[in-house]
Amino acid sequence: MDLSAPARCVVPSLAADVLVVLARTDRPMTGRQIHRLTTGASWSGVRRVLVDLSDTGLVDVTEAGSANLYVLNRDHVGAEAVLALVDLRGRLFARIRSAIAGWEVAPHSAIVFGSAARGDGGRSSDIDILLIRPSEVSVDDPGWAAAVADLCISIHRWSGNPGSVVEVDPRELDDMVTRGEPIVAELLRDQIVLVGERIMAPAAESVPG
């Protein structure tokens, strides 16, 4: 799945881009306005897609002076599928959250970070997840290890992207934060919490006055 434009895994790229723009608003838009909100598309290509979508009835078109106004026809039987395209990344995160909720041993936190959290990855980008396991659970615990491995397999099945898990216990996380490891800055900037709590920046040390 192209994490920067997930809808493209379901429909061709330009049609996906146009449909996502239309699905995000109830306001009629001109073709030029839609074109400005697509990425790297030609005006002729956007216009061609709008004509095709209007022919199917999925998009309503009305004349407004010298321009046409386009809006998604939400009464169309295909509109529900279009609306689902808008949040494929969110639906993936919901599946991950649901899978973790079924674990026999729950992590303290499960946090998506990196390109998956930012929404700027490509088709081969990893879905990066930080798992904070309970202190009493060893990294070699068979049940825990199996759950993590199954999650990575499921993520790949659900998205086509590799699942990459960084797992630490609370003490190891504290050490990472104290040392200022590069992954901590990425976590603080991009984190999307699926389970548990956010990673907090270390408190600034007070300077004696």
Please state the structural category. Answer: alpha+beta
CATH topology of the largest domain: Beta Polymerase, domain 2
- End-to-end distance: 54 Å
The dominant shape is: elongated
Low-confidence stretches: none
| Helical fraction | 40-55%
Q: Tell me, what is the CATH class of the largest domain?
A: Alpha Beta
Characterise the protein shown here.
The protein has 209 residues and is of the alpha+beta class. The protein contains nine helices and seven strands; from the N terminus they run αβααββααβαβαβααβ. The chain has a four-stranded mixed beta sheet, with helices on both faces. The protein has helices at 13-23, 31-37, 43-56, 79-86, 88-101, 115-118, 142-159, 170-179, 182-190, and strands at residues 29-30, 59-64, 67-72, 109-113, 127-132, 163-168, 192-195. It folds into two domains: 6-85, Winged helix-like DNA-binding domain superfamily/Winged helix DNA-binding domain (Arc Repressor Mutant, subunit A); 87-195, Beta Polymerase, domain 2. The relative contact order is 0.13. The mean pLDDT is 90. 45% of the residues lie in helices and 17% in strands.
Descriptive tags:
single chain, 209 residues, alpha+beta, Arc Repressor Mutant, subunit A, Beta Polymerase, domain 2, 2 domains, four-stranded mixed beta sheet, three-stranded antiparallel beta sheet, elongated
